[in-house]
Design goal:
The complex is a heterodimer of chains A (about 350) and B (about 325). Chain A is mostly helical and about 350 residues long. Chain A has a domain of about 220 residues. Chain A is about 75% helix and about 0% strand. In chain A, a hairpin with a 2-residue loop joins strand 2 and strand 3. Chain A is globular. The radius of gyration of chain B is 19 Å and the shape is globular. Classes of the chains: A mainly alpha (about 350), B mainly alpha (about 325). Chain A: This is ABC transporter permease.
């Protein structure tokens, strides 16, 4: 019995990720003395992991129905643009602006979903075209409304959100660690909400069914079109949230927010075991996959690798991880046949 | 089959009409300055690369794959060629075939990875894109390589009756590709695999071979685009290829290539590239923000998507 549990957990992609993550942290930690420095290494690392996990979740939302969102970065820019507008032009407080931006992201996502369902054209093309359109639109708005191509007004609380860690949260005499940024709360909340959606909520389960077999889902009475629009709206909203987190980190709202989101948005979910064909998602896996890539990035940077040569190793890791997964799959299939 | 041909042809007629009307409108609003020899030369010189990368994507789409490494591979090959000629003294007659071979070789690797690992082609080329971007940077860093072969440079500027040689190269590639897909056995196999892999396999066609051939051709066409860039650009650096990816998809999509594979339109892709170029010229003529080009192209593709569906439903 215990052996079976052990074997099953060994076959789980996520166990491999955790082991690899621990191994890498130990290796980097022993090679680099300052690797565990909480303020200058761990804090920014976790802040990036938090932001990119939300980016991964934005991609995961559409992967769940077997779609892709190429415009994930540009939807983040679109949402962030509205937040910048809200702070600079409408003088709204921090969270009101956040709500407006996320709603704008969700709206553009829903529009994308509507175009897909009404035309029946595959999501890749539609989101790619949306990417083009938003790329142009967002930079046009910035160049029209700002002088320095950025909204720089910081509402009350934004600076604190950027620098505060759990060390600033105290319950009586006990304070948290200064290694964990407060910004990570958004990622945790997003993971909990998305996790609840796909494991407990009817809507989320129906999205997964649409992903694994749209025809069967339609025949079982699931409103397929509405679930598709819903998944894209969720993706847009989460992308906008990630845009907010990045803007808080960098201190201003610019048109280039999210331009680096495309690769990480796939790395996290795919390494974590989310299927590209739809029907299966892993929220924890997305977090682990994102953490793995960021730990590698951080470690190699501290060992003196250039930013660009990092992308070589990340690409190789992606290929290697997925090839290994394929090998494991083939072996388990052979075992099943022998039995 | 006839109706499909008719539909594609009508799509191409529409595109041709749009291109001619757009060009005429620009000539009129520019007060005829667009008809001068140098203006025509510039127009076509900047059309060569968009046509070639559109075709490179078209081949991948034809077999039901995508090639996300278009820009990264183009940039890498262009930089490799430039560095080989400028810093290692490789003669131009060796560097050009070498660049083409390098492009095709990476294409074959893409194809083999897809076939052997069974990973989605999207993810494979996303990974190779990342790797190649890094390699391109390793090659040139932040420098611009420009002191290579004057022969190639002169060829890049040469024009016959105000039609640049580089554009003729792109056009020749389009013709060869169209003939290959229409007449050659591997080309027909490629389309069959893209249209219906199961039916293709039952007819004795190797889908795996089709996928590798498609990626190899895609890589080869990117190699041609890289050579054209080497010849016509003022120099090569790490930014080459950075804006190719979206452009490579826009031309085939507007040109009416079925994204599920199996149906292609080479002439549609070329015409669509012309139209995108017209948008760019219009942008320059009215001195608008460069972002307008992306916005208009995106809106046009979305419009095409919705309209095509309506026409299909009618």
């Amino acid at each position: 019995m215990t052996l079976q549990v052990l074997r099953r957990s060994l076959a789980d992609q996520r166990t491999g990720l955790v082991l690899l993550l621990v191994l890498l942290v130990v290796v980097f930690g022993s090679l680099i003395p300052t690797f565990f420095d909480d303020r200058f290494v761990v804090f920014p690392l976790l802040r990036d992991v938090a932001t990119l996990t939300v980016v991964g979740l934005a991609q995961l939302a559409v992967l769940s129905i077997g779609h892709l969102n190429i415009a994930v970065g540009r939807m983040a820019a679109f949402g962030a643009m509205f937040m910048g507008l809200a702070y600079e032009q409408w003088h709204l407080p921090l969270y009101a602006g956040l709500v407006i931006g996320v709603a704008a992201g969700a709206a553009i996502g829903a529009l994308t979903g509507l175009i897909i369902t009404s035309s029946g054209v595959n999501s890749f093309v539609v989101t790619l075209a949306m990417d083009f359109a938003l790329l142009g639109f967002v930079s046009l708005v910035y160049s029209e409304l700002t002088t320095s191509a950025a909204f720089t007004t910081k509402p009350a609380g934004m600076q604190e959100l950027r620098t505060f860690s759990l060390a600033d949260v105290c319950v009586g005499p006990v304070c948290g660690t200064s290694a964990i940024p407060q910004l990570a709360i958004f990622a945790v909340l997003a993971m909990l909400a998305v996790g609840y959606l796909y494991s407990r909520a009817r809507t989320g389960r129906e999205m997964l069914m649409v992903g694994s077999n749209a025809v069967a889902a339609e025949l079982s009475g699931i409103p397929v079109d509405r679930r598709i629009v819903g998944a894209h709206a969720l993706s847009g909203g989460l992308a906008a949230l990630a845009g907010f987190m990045l803007a808080v980190t960098s201190g201003s709202f610019t048109a280039t927010i999210g331009s680096e989101f495309m690769l990480p948005s796939f790395l996290g979910p795919v390494l974590g075991g989310t299927l590209l064909t739809g029907g299966a998602v892993s929220i924890i896996g997305t977090f682990l996959g994102t953490s793995l890539t960021q730990v590698i990035r951080q470690g190699l940077t501290m060992l003196g690798a250039s930013v660009q040569s990092l992308s070589i190793s990340l690409g190789i890791i992606l290929l290697a991880a997925l090839s290994l997964d394929r090998v494991r799959q083939v072996i388990s299939e052979r075992k099943a046949v022998r039995r | 089959m006839i109706t499909l041909d008719a539909r594609l042809r009508s799509n191409e007629t529409t595109l041709a009409v749009v291109a001619v009307v757009g060009y005429t409108a620009l000539v009129v609003t520019s007060g005829g300055s667009l008809l001068s020899g140098s203006a025509i030369e510039t127009f076509f010189a900047y059309l060569a690369v968009p046509v070639l990368i559109g075709l490179a994507q078209l081949v991948a789409l034809a077999v039901g794959q995508m090639n996300l490494s278009v820009g990264a591979l183009g940039g890498f090959v262009a930089c490799a060629g430039g560095v080989a000629m400028a810093q290692h003294g490789v003669p131009v007659w060796l560097a050009v075939p070498g660049a083409l071979a390098l492009g095709a070789f990476v294409g074959v690797l893409n194809g083999l990875l897809v076939v052997l690992t069974r990973i989605n082609g999207f993810i494979v080329t996303l990974a190779t894109m990342t790797i190649l971007t890094g390699l391109q940077y390793e090659l040139v860093g932040t420098t611009t390589v420009s002191d290579y072969s004057p022969v190639l440079r002169d060829l890049g500027r040469a024009a016959i009756f105000h039609i640049p040689v580089v554009f003729l190269v792109a056009l020749a590639a389009a013709v060869v590709l169209a003939v290959f897909l229409r007449r050659a056995v591997p080309g027909r196999h490629l389309l069959a695999s893209g249209g219906n892999p199961l039916a293709a396999r039952l007819s004795g066609i190797s889908n795996n071979r089709s996928i590798v051939v498609a990626h190899a051709l895609s890589g080869l066409l990117i190699g041609v685009a890289a050579v054209v860039t080497l010849a016509s650009a003022p120099g090569v650096n790490q930014s080459i290829g950075g804006d190719w990816l979206l452009a490579s998809f826009a031309a085939p999509i507007i040109g009416g290539v079925a994204l599920s594979g199996g149906a292609v339109s080479v002439s549609g892709t070329v015409l669509a590239a012309v139209i995108i170029r017209l948008v760019d010229v219009a942008r320059a003529q009215f001195s608008l923000n460069p972002s307008w080009v992306n916005f208009v192209v995106g809106a046009v593709v979305l419009g095409t998507v919705v309209l095509t569906h309506r026409r299909g439903a009618a």
